[in-house]
Design brief:
The chain has 4 helices and 12 strands. The chain has 293 residues and is α+β, with helices and mostly antiparallel strands.
Amino acid sequence: MTGDGRGAENLDVDDPGTPDSTEPVKAKKKKRPLWVELPILIGVALVLTFVIQTFIARVFVIPSESMEQTLHGCAGCTGDRVLVDRVVYYFRDPEPGDVVVFERPATWDQNGSVNRSGNAVVAWFQDIGSQFGLAEPSEDDVVKRVIAVGGQTVECCDERNRVLVNGEPLDEPYFAKATPDATQQEFGKITVPEGMLFVLGDNRNNSRDSRSQGGGGVNGFVPVDNVIGKARAIILPPSRWQGVGDHDPQALSAPAWQSGIPVGVGIAAAWPTLWLGRRVRGMLTRGRPTASR
Protein backbone atom coordinates (compact mmCIF):
# COMPACT_ATOMS: atom_id res chain seq x y z
CA MET A 1 0.00 0.00 0.00
CA THR A 2 1.17 3.57 -0.65
CA GLY A 3 0.96 6.49 1.69
CA ASP A 4 -2.29 7.76 0.18
CA GLY A 5 -4.02 4.46 0.74
CA ARG A 6 -4.20 3.40 -2.87
CA GLY A 7 -2.84 0.16 -4.20
CA ALA A 8 0.24 0.30 -6.38
CA GLU A 9 -1.58 -1.72 -8.92
CA ASN A 10 -3.96 1.19 -9.49
CA LEU A 11 -1.23 3.70 -10.43
CA ASP A 12 -1.05 4.81 -14.08
CA VAL A 13 2.63 4.13 -14.79
CA ASP A 14 4.11 3.78 -18.26
CA ASP A 15 6.41 0.83 -18.72
CA PRO A 16 9.25 2.00 -20.99
CA GLY A 17 10.01 -1.55 -21.86
CA THR A 18 6.57 -2.20 -23.30
CA PRO A 19 5.88 -1.05 -26.91
CA ASP A 20 2.95 1.28 -27.47
CA SER A 21 0.18 -0.83 -28.95
CA THR A 22 -1.36 2.24 -30.63
CA GLU A 23 1.72 2.93 -32.76
CA PRO A 24 1.08 1.75 -36.37
CA VAL A 25 3.36 -0.92 -37.62
CA LYS A 26 4.90 0.01 -40.97
CA ALA A 27 4.83 -2.84 -43.43
CA LYS A 28 7.36 -3.02 -46.17
CA LYS A 29 5.82 -2.23 -49.57
CA LYS A 30 6.37 -5.13 -51.89
CA LYS A 31 7.75 -4.08 -55.27
CA ARG A 32 5.75 -5.22 -58.26
CA PRO A 33 7.53 -7.53 -60.66
CA LEU A 34 8.48 -6.17 -64.08
CA TRP A 35 5.92 -8.28 -65.89
CA VAL A 36 3.19 -6.51 -63.88
CA GLU A 37 4.60 -2.97 -64.14
CA LEU A 38 5.38 -3.10 -67.87
CA PRO A 39 1.73 -3.34 -69.07
CA ILE A 40 0.81 -0.51 -66.67
CA LEU A 41 3.59 1.72 -68.03
CA ILE A 42 2.57 0.94 -71.61
CA GLY A 43 -1.06 1.72 -70.81
CA VAL A 44 -0.18 5.06 -69.20
CA ALA A 45 2.06 5.95 -72.16
CA LEU A 46 -0.74 5.17 -74.63
CA VAL A 47 -3.24 7.28 -72.69
CA LEU A 48 -0.82 10.23 -72.51
CA THR A 49 -0.04 9.87 -76.20
CA PHE A 50 -3.75 9.88 -77.05
CA VAL A 51 -4.35 13.01 -74.97
CA ILE A 52 -1.34 14.85 -76.45
CA GLN A 53 -2.15 13.85 -80.04
CA THR A 54 -5.83 14.75 -79.66
CA PHE A 55 -5.58 18.06 -77.82
CA ILE A 56 -2.03 19.45 -77.88
CA ALA A 57 0.25 18.49 -80.78
CA ARG A 58 0.74 15.87 -83.45
CA VAL A 59 3.37 14.88 -86.00
CA PHE A 60 2.43 14.66 -89.68
CA VAL A 61 4.29 13.40 -92.72
CA ILE A 62 4.32 15.63 -95.80
CA PRO A 63 3.36 13.20 -98.59
CA SER A 64 3.51 15.39 -101.70
CA GLU A 65 5.39 18.24 -103.35
CA SER A 66 2.51 20.70 -103.17
CA MET A 67 4.19 22.74 -100.41
CA GLU A 68 7.73 22.92 -101.84
CA GLN A 69 10.00 24.69 -100.96
CA THR A 70 8.50 25.34 -97.54
CA LEU A 71 7.85 21.65 -96.85
CA HIS A 72 9.55 18.79 -98.64
CA GLY A 73 7.61 15.78 -99.84
CA CYS A 74 7.41 13.67 -102.98
CA ALA A 75 6.29 10.23 -104.13
CA GLY A 76 8.78 7.53 -103.18
CA CYS A 77 10.91 9.73 -100.89
CA THR A 78 10.98 10.55 -97.20
CA GLY A 79 8.84 13.61 -96.60
CA ASP A 80 9.32 16.15 -93.82
CA ARG A 81 7.91 15.32 -90.40
CA VAL A 82 6.07 18.38 -89.19
CA LEU A 83 4.95 19.21 -85.64
CA VAL A 84 1.40 20.55 -85.73
CA ASP A 85 0.12 22.78 -82.92
CA ARG A 86 -3.49 21.92 -82.01
CA VAL A 87 -3.82 24.47 -79.18
CA VAL A 88 -3.50 27.77 -81.08
CA TYR A 89 -6.89 27.50 -82.78
CA TYR A 90 -8.68 26.99 -79.49
CA PHE A 91 -8.21 30.75 -79.06
CA ARG A 92 -8.41 32.12 -82.60
CA ASP A 93 -9.30 31.16 -86.16
CA PRO A 94 -6.69 30.49 -88.86
CA GLU A 95 -5.27 33.65 -90.45
CA PRO A 96 -3.77 34.43 -93.88
CA GLY A 97 -0.26 33.01 -94.11
CA ASP A 98 -0.84 30.14 -91.66
CA VAL A 99 0.27 26.72 -92.91
CA VAL A 100 -2.52 24.45 -91.71
CA VAL A 101 -3.31 20.75 -91.63
CA PHE A 102 -6.97 19.96 -92.12
CA GLU A 103 -9.35 17.11 -92.80
CA ARG A 104 -10.23 16.84 -96.48
CA PRO A 105 -13.64 18.51 -97.01
CA ALA A 106 -16.43 16.32 -98.35
CA THR A 107 -16.56 18.52 -101.48
CA TRP A 108 -12.91 17.81 -102.34
CA ASP A 109 -11.83 15.00 -104.64
CA GLN A 110 -10.34 11.84 -103.17
CA ASN A 111 -6.74 11.15 -104.19
CA GLY A 112 -7.03 7.36 -103.98
CA SER A 113 -6.36 4.93 -101.18
CA VAL A 114 -3.32 5.22 -98.95
CA ASN A 115 -0.71 2.46 -99.27
CA ARG A 116 -1.73 0.08 -96.47
CA SER A 117 -0.96 -3.61 -95.95
CA GLY A 118 -3.61 -6.21 -96.68
CA ASN A 119 -2.83 -7.73 -93.28
CA ALA A 120 -5.24 -6.21 -90.76
CA VAL A 121 -2.69 -6.29 -87.92
CA VAL A 122 0.06 -4.66 -90.01
CA ALA A 123 -2.41 -2.06 -91.32
CA TRP A 124 -3.37 -1.25 -87.72
CA PHE A 125 0.25 -0.64 -86.79
CA GLN A 126 0.64 1.53 -89.91
CA ASP A 127 -2.31 3.66 -88.79
CA ILE A 128 -0.78 3.98 -85.31
CA GLY A 129 2.59 4.89 -86.86
CA SER A 130 0.97 7.62 -88.92
CA GLN A 131 -0.07 9.30 -85.67
CA PHE A 132 3.63 9.73 -84.83
CA GLY A 133 4.78 10.63 -88.34
CA LEU A 134 6.36 7.19 -88.79
CA ALA A 135 4.08 6.05 -91.61
CA GLU A 136 2.23 7.58 -94.54
CA PRO A 137 -0.71 9.65 -93.28
CA SER A 138 -4.35 9.16 -94.12
CA GLU A 139 -5.48 10.64 -97.42
CA ASP A 140 -8.01 12.65 -95.43
CA ASP A 141 -5.29 14.89 -93.92
CA VAL A 142 -4.11 17.74 -96.14
CA VAL A 143 -1.61 20.58 -95.65
CA LYS A 144 -1.90 23.96 -97.41
CA ARG A 145 -1.43 27.69 -96.74
CA VAL A 146 -4.33 30.00 -95.88
CA ILE A 147 -4.66 32.74 -98.51
CA ALA A 148 -8.04 34.30 -97.71
CA VAL A 149 -10.59 34.01 -94.92
CA GLY A 150 -14.32 34.58 -94.53
CA GLY A 151 -15.61 37.83 -96.04
CA GLN A 152 -12.64 38.36 -98.37
CA THR A 153 -12.64 38.14 -102.17
CA VAL A 154 -9.84 36.37 -103.98
CA GLU A 155 -8.88 36.12 -107.65
CA CYS A 156 -5.93 35.55 -109.97
CA CYS A 157 -4.18 37.20 -111.51
CA ASP A 158 -2.98 40.79 -112.02
CA GLU A 159 -0.57 41.89 -114.79
CA ARG A 160 2.33 40.54 -112.75
CA ASN A 161 0.64 37.17 -112.26
CA ARG A 162 -0.06 37.78 -108.57
CA VAL A 163 -3.06 36.60 -106.55
CA LEU A 164 -5.35 39.43 -105.41
CA VAL A 165 -7.30 39.56 -102.15
CA ASN A 166 -9.86 42.36 -101.88
CA GLY A 167 -8.30 43.78 -105.05
CA GLU A 168 -4.79 44.04 -103.54
CA PRO A 169 -1.83 41.91 -104.72
CA LEU A 170 -0.29 39.46 -102.28
CA ASP A 171 3.34 39.37 -101.18
CA GLU A 172 4.30 35.67 -101.48
CA PRO A 173 8.04 35.04 -101.05
CA TYR A 174 7.32 31.35 -100.40
CA PHE A 175 5.72 30.89 -103.83
CA ALA A 176 7.91 28.38 -105.68
CA LYS A 177 7.60 28.53 -109.45
CA ALA A 178 8.35 25.39 -111.44
CA THR A 179 10.39 27.39 -113.96
CA PRO A 180 11.46 31.05 -114.08
CA ASP A 181 8.88 31.84 -116.76
CA ALA A 182 6.04 29.77 -115.25
CA THR A 183 2.69 31.42 -114.58
CA GLN A 184 0.13 30.31 -112.04
CA GLN A 185 -3.35 29.14 -112.92
CA GLU A 186 -5.89 31.92 -113.33
CA PHE A 187 -9.27 31.83 -111.59
CA GLY A 188 -12.16 34.27 -111.35
CA LYS A 189 -13.12 36.45 -108.42
CA ILE A 190 -14.91 34.63 -105.62
CA THR A 191 -15.95 35.66 -102.11
CA VAL A 192 -15.06 33.39 -99.21
CA PRO A 193 -18.08 32.75 -96.95
CA GLU A 194 -17.79 33.21 -93.20
CA GLY A 195 -16.46 30.12 -91.50
CA MET A 196 -14.54 29.07 -94.63
CA LEU A 197 -10.94 29.32 -95.87
CA PHE A 198 -9.37 29.65 -99.31
CA VAL A 199 -6.11 27.67 -99.34
CA LEU A 200 -3.29 27.20 -101.86
CA GLY A 201 -0.10 25.17 -102.01
CA ASP A 202 3.21 27.04 -102.01
CA ASN A 203 4.29 25.01 -105.06
CA ARG A 204 1.48 26.66 -106.92
CA ASN A 205 1.82 24.77 -110.22
CA ASN A 206 1.94 21.35 -108.56
CA SER A 207 -0.86 21.65 -106.06
CA ARG A 208 -4.52 20.72 -106.08
CA ASP A 209 -6.20 23.16 -103.76
CA SER A 210 -9.13 25.59 -103.48
CA ARG A 211 -8.73 26.54 -107.14
CA SER A 212 -9.60 23.11 -108.53
CA GLN A 213 -10.74 20.72 -105.80
CA GLY A 214 -14.33 19.62 -106.32
CA GLY A 215 -14.34 21.56 -109.58
CA GLY A 216 -13.30 24.79 -107.87
CA GLY A 217 -15.61 27.60 -106.82
CA VAL A 218 -17.58 27.05 -103.63
CA ASN A 219 -16.52 23.38 -103.55
CA GLY A 220 -12.90 24.42 -103.07
CA PHE A 221 -13.39 26.15 -99.72
CA VAL A 222 -12.22 24.54 -96.48
CA PRO A 223 -14.46 24.81 -93.38
CA VAL A 224 -12.63 26.29 -90.39
CA ASP A 225 -14.02 23.41 -88.34
CA ASN A 226 -11.99 20.98 -90.49
CA VAL A 227 -8.67 22.52 -89.43
CA ILE A 228 -6.62 20.21 -87.21
CA GLY A 229 -3.81 22.60 -86.35
CA LYS A 230 -1.01 24.90 -87.42
CA ALA A 231 2.34 23.57 -88.71
CA ARG A 232 5.01 24.93 -86.36
CA ALA A 233 8.29 23.20 -87.11
CA ILE A 234 10.01 20.54 -89.20
CA ILE A 235 11.35 17.99 -86.71
CA LEU A 236 12.68 15.32 -89.11
CA PRO A 237 15.00 14.75 -90.85
CA PRO A 238 17.59 16.51 -88.62
CA SER A 239 19.09 18.29 -91.64
CA ARG A 240 15.75 20.07 -92.08
CA TRP A 241 15.22 21.28 -88.49
CA GLN A 242 13.58 24.68 -88.77
CA GLY A 243 10.39 26.56 -88.05
CA VAL A 244 7.56 26.77 -90.56
CA GLY A 245 7.06 30.38 -91.62
CA ASP A 246 3.69 32.08 -91.41
CA HIS A 247 4.43 35.20 -93.46
CA ASP A 248 1.19 37.15 -93.91
CA PRO A 249 0.79 37.61 -97.68
CA GLN A 250 -1.68 40.44 -97.09
CA ALA A 251 0.71 42.46 -94.90
CA LEU A 252 1.82 44.84 -97.66
CA SER A 253 -1.75 45.60 -98.65
CA ALA A 254 -2.71 46.74 -95.12
CA PRO A 255 -2.69 50.49 -94.36
CA ALA A 256 0.35 51.71 -92.41
CA TRP A 257 -1.76 52.73 -89.41
CA GLN A 258 -3.31 49.24 -89.28
CA SER A 259 0.04 47.46 -89.28
CA GLY A 260 1.01 49.47 -86.19
CA ILE A 261 -2.03 48.41 -84.18
CA PRO A 262 -0.41 45.46 -82.34
CA VAL A 263 2.47 47.60 -81.05
CA GLY A 264 0.18 50.49 -80.19
CA VAL A 265 -2.28 48.28 -78.38
CA GLY A 266 0.55 46.65 -76.42
CA ILE A 267 1.92 50.00 -75.24
CA ALA A 268 -1.54 51.36 -74.41
CA ALA A 269 -2.47 48.22 -72.48
CA ALA A 270 0.75 48.19 -70.47
CA TRP A 271 -0.18 51.11 -68.18
CA PRO A 272 -3.65 49.96 -67.06
CA THR A 273 -2.33 46.41 -66.64
CA LEU A 274 0.49 47.66 -64.39
CA TRP A 275 -1.90 49.88 -62.44
CA LEU A 276 -4.40 47.04 -61.93
CA GLY A 277 -1.63 44.68 -60.81
CA ARG A 278 -0.45 47.18 -58.16
CA ARG A 279 -4.01 47.71 -56.87
CA VAL A 280 -4.63 43.98 -56.51
CA ARG A 281 -1.26 43.48 -54.80
CA GLY A 282 -2.04 46.32 -52.37
CA MET A 283 -5.47 44.88 -51.52
CA LEU A 284 -3.96 41.48 -50.82
CA THR A 285 -1.27 43.01 -48.62
CA ARG A 286 -3.77 45.04 -46.57
CA GLY A 287 -6.03 42.02 -46.11
CA ARG A 288 -3.20 39.77 -44.90
CA PRO A 289 -3.26 39.20 -41.07
CA THR A 290 -0.19 40.45 -39.17
CA ALA A 291 1.87 37.98 -37.16
CA SER A 292 1.61 38.25 -33.34
CA ARG A 293 4.73 39.24 -31.47
